[in-house]
Structure formats: structure tokens, C-alpha cells
């Protein structure tokens, strides 16, 4: 690497770090978001060398570069080339790297991301999940969903005491939801759902939407 290349790399790293540690970083990515008429369910490199996302549902000039924690979770099962997949796959991938769809059908939306093979982020320096673990006086043995629909796990045997956690590896996430015709995620009353829900059901039965926007399309099935 030449001295000039090293100089540019150093400045690029500094600028990205400065941007990510500024007040704008506190804004979360919003998925899906609409940019120039296209809908994005994950970070994009459209008009950029680096992946980015909008921090508003409709891009209005506010955005951020994507860090590993910003990407949406995988959606399992998903359809790729007419076949249902319940885990990350390498089919069609550059260099055989594992990937997943971020919607129920890659064939329909063609929105995807590379899979995280290990736990990441959190406040435990990406340590692996520890199960079982104590959390809120209950014993848990699987990843939990936070308010942003992301899956996390304790990294010690006592979350209540230690408070240490990581985001779950995509390869740890099992397919526990119904497949087609459910569409995950789906939006119901301005909230994204990655699993079937009983919200809004008169008989308290589990259901899912068959398109992304239930409020617009009103198409659904019982799970």
C-alpha cells in the first residue's frame, strides 16, 4: 500500500468514526424505508460506496452508515428460487458466503444480507450466548426479542446480576414461524411483526398478514 493510499484510508476511517460517534448515530435505521421510489428492507449501497440506511420511513435527507448492529434480522423460512429455506444458505453466494433473505420471499423482494455466524454487538464484546440463564427471575433457554425486533441473548448464567448480552448469531435463529403464505415482516398498525400475532384478533387466535402492509391490503391467514 502506498503512502497516499494509507493517508486516504486513515482519513476515511476517521471520518466514518466521527460520523458514527456523532449525535446522528443515536438515530436507528428504519426498515423498510423508501428512497427515490424504491423500498428497502435492509441497508443499501445505492448511490454510495458504503452501506447506509434511512432513519425515517420515507427518506428526507436523514440517514446513517450501517454498522453491524444496524442490519435487520434474517427471516426464516424464506423462498429462494422457488425453494423454502429454514437456515442461512450459500446458494448463489459470492465465494460461498452464507446469507439470508430479510423478507419471506427473496424471489419477490430480492432483499438480503450476509449472515452473522457468531454473536455480535451488545455490551459483552460479542461473547457467545449462555443458556440457560436467569433473566427477570425466569430461566430462559433461547434468544429474546427486543423492542426493535432484534434477537439478543445473555452471555452469563445470570443476566439479572451481570447484565451482559450480545445480539444472537443469525445461524442460531431457528425457523419457528410458519412459511408461505405469511409475509414476514408485516406491518400492522405501524408496527413490524416477524412472527404470528394475536393482536387485533377477536378470538385471540394467532394470525399473520400475507403482504407487507396489512393496513393497506387487509390480506391475512390464521397461523
Structural class: alpha+beta
- Overall shape: globular
**Could you give the distance between the termini?**
56 Å
The percentage helix is 10-25%
Average pLDDT across residues? 84
What fraction of the residues are assigned to beta strands by DSSP?
15-25%
Lateral arrangement of strands in the main beta sheet: 11-12-13
Largest sheet features: 3 strands, antiparallel
Number of strands: 17
Number of distinct helices: 4
What sequence of helices (H) and strands (E) makes up the elements? HEEEEEEEHEEEEEHEEEEHE
* Poorly predicted parts: 1-25
Rg is: 19 Å
Features:
alpha+beta; 4 helices; 17 strands; 223 residues
Detail the topology: elements first, then pairings.
Layout: H1 3-20, E1 33-35, E2 38-40, E3 52-54, E4 63-65, E5 78-80, E6 83-85, E7 99-101, H2 106-109, E8 112-114, E9 133-135, E10 138-140, E11 144-145, E12 151-154, H3 159-162, E13 165-167, E14 186-188, E15 191-193, E16 207-209, H4 214-217, E17 220-222
Summarize the structure.
The chain is α+β, with helices and mostly antiparallel strands. It has four helices and 17 strands. The longest helix has 18 residues, at 3-20.
Structure description:
With 223 residues, the chain is of the alpha+beta class. It is built from four helices and 17 strands. It has helices spanning 3-20, 106-109, 159-162, 214-217; strands at residues 33-35, 38-40, 52-54, 63-65, 78-80, 83-85, 99-101, 112-114, 133-135, 138-140, 144-145, 151-154, 165-167, 186-188, 191-193, 207-209, 220-222. The protein has a three-stranded antiparallel sheet with strand order 11-12-13, with no helix packed on it. Strands 1-2 form a two-stranded antiparallel ribbon. It has a two-stranded antiparallel sheet with strand order 3-4. Strand 5 (78-80) and strand 6 form a beta hairpin. The longest helix is centred in the N-terminal third of the chain and has 18 residues, at 3-20. The N and C termini lie far apart (56 Å).
Amino acid at each position: 500500500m502506498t503512502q497516499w493510499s494509507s493517508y486516504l484510508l486513515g482519513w476515511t476511517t476517521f471520518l466514518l468514526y466521527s460520523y458514527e460517534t456523532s449525535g446522528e448515530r443515536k438515530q436507528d435505521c428504519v426498515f423498510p424505508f423508501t428512497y427515490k421510489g424504491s423500498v428497502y428492507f435492509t441497508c443499501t449501497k445505492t448511490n454510495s460506496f458504503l452501506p447506509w440506511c434511512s432513519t425515517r420511513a420515507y427518506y428526507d435527507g436523514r440517514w446513517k452508515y450501517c454498522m453491524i448492529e444496524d442490519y435487520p434480522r434474517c427471516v426464516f423460512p424464506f423462498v429462494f428460487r422457488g425453494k423454502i429455506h429454514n437456515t442461512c444458505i450459500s446458494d448463489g453466494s459470492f465465494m460461498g458466503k452464507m446469507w439470508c433473505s430479510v423478507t419471506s420471499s427473496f424471489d419477490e423482494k430480492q432483499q438480503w444480507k450476509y449472515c452473522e455466524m457468531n454473536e455480535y454487538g451488545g455490551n459483552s464484546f460479542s461473547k457467545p450466548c449462555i443458556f440457560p440463564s436467569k433473566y427477570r427471575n425466569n430461566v430462559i433457554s433461547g434468544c429474546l426479542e427486543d423492542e426493535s425486533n432484534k434477537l439478543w441473548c445473555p452471555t452469563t448464567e445470570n443476566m439479572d446480576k451481570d447484565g451482559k448480552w450480545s445480539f444472537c448469531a443469525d445461524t442460531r435463529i431457528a425457523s419457528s414461524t410458519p412459511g408461505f403464505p405469511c409475509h414476514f415482516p408485516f406491518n400492522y398498525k405501524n408496527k413490524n411483526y416477524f412472527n404470528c400475532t394475536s393482536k387485533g384478533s377477536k378470538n385471540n387466535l394467532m394470525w399473520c398478514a400475507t403482504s407487507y402492509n396489512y393496513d393497506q391490503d387487509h390480506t391475512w391467514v390464521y397461523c
